[in-house]
Specification:
The protein is mainly α. The protein has 2 helices and no strands.
Length: 88
């Protein structure tokens, strides 16, 4: 099984990979492909989770900007409303 140093797989999966690597070749051959699918699924799930977390962070930031803009708009409205009432 090929892994890079940047892989951050769950410890259980890493342990399983080590144990499968220790098996005799005849048994290992049957397990390599399913294990690779599980590893790829885990990586894909982690990428998706990271994308979701980034999107949520961006949404939170956008909401803060929108709330700031809404508050500023309300203040401006009240200011101009007061000016209008003074002129009448």
């Amino acid at each position: 099984m090929t892994r890079t140093k940047t892989d951050k797989l769950p410890m259980d999966l890493t342990d399983l990979m080590i144990e499968i690597d220790r098996l005799p070749e005849e048994y290992r051959q049957n397990l390599v492909q399913p294990l690779n699918r599980v590893v790829e699924y885990t990586r894909r799930r982690r990428r998706i989770l990271n994308l979701i977390q980034e999107a949520l962070s961006q949404l939170r930031m956008d909401m803060k900007y929108l709330m700031f803009d809404l508050d500023a708009t309300r203040r401006e409205r009240e200011h101009y409303k007061g000016l209008l009432e003074e002129n009448q």
